[in-house]
Structure formats: structure tokens, C-alpha cells
Amino acid sequence: MSSSPTRSLLRAASCRLFCVAIGFPVAAGVMGQTLDTGALLTLPLPDTGRLEEGAQLQLQEVRASLDDALASPETSTDDLAEVYGFLGQLYYVYEFEDLAQLSFQNASSLQPEDYRWHYFLAVLYRLAGEWSLVKESLATVLAMQPQDVASLIRLGEARLELGELEAAAQSYQMVIDLAPTLASGYAGRGRVEYGRGDYDRAIADLSRALELQPDATSLNHRLGMAYRQAGDLDQARSYLSRNSGGYLEFPDPLLRDLSALIRSTQVNFNTGILEARQGNFDEAIRRFRLALEDQPDDALAAYNLALALLKKGERQKGIESLQHSLEIDPDLRNAHFNLAMLLAEDGQWDQVVDHLIEARRIDPEDRVAHLELATAVSKTGRTEEAITELRLLLEMHPRDPEALLNLGLLLAEQRRQDEAVDTFARLVEVGGDPQIQSAAHGQLGILMEAKGATVAALAEYQAAVDLAPTSVQARVALAAALGRSGRFAEAAEQYLEVITLAPERVDGHFGRAMALILAELYPTAVQALEKALEIHPQNVGIVHALARLLATSPEASVRDGDRALGMAEAVFDVERSIEHAETLAMALAEVGRFDEARDLQAQVVSETERQGDTQGAARARRRLEGYQRGEPCRAPWKEG
């Protein structure tokens, strides 16, 4: 059974729970009842080598209790179910999910009327992404506990994942009715409404959920997406930027009660692990700090404290706790790696390199450490060392797609084109992830185009788009290449795809408009710029392009001199560049103010000559001569 990212991360901290063995008493049978154990699932012994000695002993003793119960003719069905259920909880805590599932399945077979076993199975099925089984188990729980809020919340999630929007809405409505101050009900109903396309109601419910649980900052992402779909891009950007990963929490008594099983001297550490798994980071932080008060040299407590602090959004304190864990134990690979990733966000590349070298030292076959180290070393300007690092990784994993991609990029950056082409060709041969393959073809396109092989380059760009049709980067590269090849109408079509995929990107709108202008499709170009202006009303580049087109279009139906002049003056006030001055002169000429157009264009000629731009000066002089003859410009971006 697969683990969630949080569970996997905690596993790296050795997951040392239950250091004092806990035996489990087996009660006598009821009225000489004989158990039929033939229908029970076989429970293999786990490999407990990663656990501490005390934890291993505990599991051994509980398994011995199970063996005794199975062997005894006096064991009752309920007693055996309790042993299996208790063992399942221990296996869950220690992250032996497969064994936990088998244990709870046996417990539920022996004691089908006990909702606990069905609930624990639902939790495990959720970790595995088995949503139909989650729904089935929770239906059994709710038949026995119809008002169990935690089960209703989990059932709503399962129904959402299965696409059963109406049923999910019923589950979340029951949560709201039973617990009107609980954020989860509104958050879930908001997700349903988003799925239905009712974005206004989704915004209302998600906002209410965030109001009830402000620490659940992950809700900002869903709220931002709802605003985007509703067409309010400013609000969308605002909310999307506030997502710091805070979990949505809800009362879950059965999982919280697992901490009561802990009867060891490390109760605070162990409880911290459990609380962190459930997203209760405040309590986890408190527990890890208490553990460190008792044992200041406990590197794993410091490490897990760092993880909880980071999940809570307390970044600097998390960094300090990671550093403290390494002061205690310099051989904590994950502490080095996580600290490196955090320092990378701050651009502290020398320190990033130091920590990744340590991570690689601890585990020389650590593929990810090699990859990240190559990136970090290249950021310090030591490109050759980065290339060497990637070649070392490729000696161990010759067909590693990410290593080949990164190596090709570095070689291209160093203008070692032939080696780069060979590397990207190897990557294409390897196959695999379409996104990585798309990137390889895109890079081959750049290299082919640099060699003057335009046809081959366009074929590579097209292959990149074919492999990743929703890749904005691939579409932009193809569109730009088509434009450089003079295939302006085709370029405009590709930019339209970019706009469809990412309507907020300025380059898609601007690129399409310029391609349409160069294709001499002036009315369509105006429409494209007007649409872009609705989305980006303050973008100087878009305003400038529209002003120039309105002032100079060869088609009279497109020209609007007065509007062009107002826009050109506004742009020139923002930035007094040569290009903006020329556009203002074009607009002045269009409204018949040739004296002012000539004066301004003369300044453009003088400035371009001063800058040594011979071609630009010649072009500006020809426009000046036209104004001197009383002729407005009729070539927006072509020499008139």
C-alpha cells in the first residue's frame, strides 16, 4: 500500500514508536465457543529492522499474544477481534500499512458490528487511493454511527473523487447540519459547487471555510481557482499567492486516540509523530519541543520539529531546527537535503552545495542528491563541475531522463552544441515521460535553428507540442519559430492555443497580435489587442502596440487617430523611449499635426544616430521625410 507524502517524510525519521513493549491480555472464551480461523487472512511477519529495539520487542510480544489467542480453544471471537484490531493500530502507527489492512480486515470479519475496524480500513484505503473501498467501508460505519462527522467528511471526499457530485453534496450538507462551525463541511460543499461550475457559490462556501479555519491556507488555492473561473483575475491572483500549505483539519477521535496507546518514555516524541501525520502541527510542535527538553541531544526530535514548523509555515524556525538536528547528528541525510532545498529558495547556493555534498556522502547512490547538486553547483557558476556530477550519475543510471535533460541544457549553455544535440538525442531515444521528451525536442529545435536548419527546427518544435499539447512553453516556442520563419498566420494560431491554455500570460496575447499584424490581418489584430487589454489594462506593451496599429494601419476601417494619440501620449509619459516617441509621432501625423510629428521624429533620428544604430537611424529618417511631405505612416512594424 502506498504512503502519502507526509507519511513517507516521517518514515525517513526512523519512526521510532512504542519503545516499551505492551502486552495484550487475552480474555477467556465465552461458553466454550470454538473459533473458525480458517477464513482469516494470513498475517506475515513484518521486517522491523528499521525500528528501535524497544519497538521491535513490542511488536513481537503483541504478535505472540495473537499466536496464543489463535492457539487457545478458549479465545472468544470478540477477544480475537480486539487483538487483531490492536495489532492493526500498531501496524498503522509504525507505517506497515499492508499488515494493518490485513489486521483490520480480520478484526472486521470477526466483529463486523464494531464500526472502528471499518473506519480504520477506510483510512487505509484512502492512503492507497482506493476510493470505492473507502466509500464502501464508510457506508458500513455510518449504518452503525449515522451522525459520525468524521465519517461523513471522509465519505464526501470519496464521493468527490469518484465524481459523484450529488452524493458528495448530501454528505457535506449533513456535516454542515451536524457541525455548522466546522470548516470541512463548507470546504467540501465548495468543492462540489466548483465541480458543478457554480463558481459564485463555491466562492461563498470556500470563503466561509477559510473564515472558520484561517490556518487552512491551502483553501486559498481552491478559492483562487474559483475566482479565476468566475473571471475575477485580480482576486484569483491574490488568493493563489496566499496558499502556504496549511491543512484543513477536522475532529477525528479514532485517529487521535491512537496516541493513548503510547506508554513509553518517549511519549512526547511519539505523540508528535502521530499529531503531525494528522496535520495537527501546533500540537506536534509542542510535543517535539517537550521531547527536546527531556533529551536535548535527540537529533530526530529536532528534525521532526523542523518538519512540523515548516508545515505550519514557520520557515525560519524550521531552518534553525534543521540546523540544530545536524549539529547533533551530521549524518542525517534528509536534514541535509531538506535544508539544502530551503536555502536554495534564498539563493544561498554555496551552502546548498555543501549540504547536498553531505547528503551524497551519506548515500553515494542518492539519485536526487546528484541531480540537485548538479543544479546547485551550476548556480555558483561552476558549470564544468555540474556537468561532471551529471556524468557520474549517468554512469550509474545511463538512461536517467532528468540527468540527460539537465546535462543537455548545461552543454547547450556552454555552446557545446554537438554534445548537447547528442545528449538530447539520447534522451529522445530513452523515451518515457512526455513532458521531459517534449522539453528534449524543444531544445533540439533551438539547436537546429541556431545551425540554420529551419525545417528541422520546426519539426522538433512540432514534436514538442505533439508530445505535450498543454505545454505553454512548447506552444510559445513553436509559435515564435513559425513567426521567425515568416509563417505569421500559423504563428497566430499557436499563440491562440497559448491564450486558451494560459489566458493570463501577456506573451500569448502580444505574440498573437504581432503575428496577425505581420500577416496583415489588421482588424483581427485590433480585436486581439482589445481582448488583451481587458485582461491586462495596465500593460504598457499592449497599449503601445494598439496605439501604433490604430495610428498606422493600412486599412482605414481600423485607424482611429484620436484614440491612438491619447494612448501614445499615455505610453510616452510612462516611458520616454525611442520606440514610444516614434509611435507618438505616428499618432500626431495621423491626426494631421505634422509639425509636431516632424519635431518629435527629428529627435528620434538624432538619438538613434547618437546611439550608433545606423539601420534604425535610416529607418527613422525615412519616416521623417514622409512627415515632411505631409504623409502619415502606413506600416506599423514594417519599414515604410
Based on the structure given, which CATH architecture of the domain at 5-208 and 221-228 is correct?
Alpha Horseshoe
Report the top-level CATH class of the domain at 5-208 and 221-228. Answer: Mainly Alpha
The biggest beta sheet, please?
A: none
Shape: elongated
* Gyration radius, in Å: 33 Å
| Fourth-level CATH superfamily of the domain at 5-208 and 221-228 | Tetratricopeptide repeat domain
Strand content: under 5%
**CATH fold category name of the domain at 5-208 and 221-228:** Serine Threonine Protein Phosphatase 5, Tetratricopeptide repeat
Count, helices: 34
Structural class: mainly alpha
Task: Let me know the average pLDDT.
Answer: 88
How many β-strand stretches?
0
Distance between the termini: 69 Å
Helical content (DSSP H or I, runs of 4+): over 70%
Low-confidence stretches: 1-34
Describe the overall structure.
The chain is built from 34 helices and no strands. With 640 residues, the chain is an all-alpha fold. Among the domains are: 5-208 and 221-228, Alpha Horseshoe (Serine Threonine Protein Phosphatase 5, Tetratricopeptide repeat); 470-537, Tetratricopeptide repeat domain (Serine Threonine Protein Phosphatase 5, Tetratricopeptide repeat, Alpha Horseshoe), CATH 1.25.40.10; 541-640. The chain is elongated. The N and C termini lie far apart (69 Å).
